[in-house]
Amino acid sequence: MLEQCEGSHAVARAVALCRPEVICAYPISPQTHIVEGLGEMV
Question: What residue numbers bound the domain in which 40 lies?
């Protein structure tokens, strides 16, 4: 089943699926949603 989501949330999910050991990010527009999404998954 396909799920529709916002682009920044899709990026956060894709990064999380890669299982990185370290993520260096600074929450600044327009990437803020990506960093917040990653923070929720940790």
Answer: 1-19+26-42
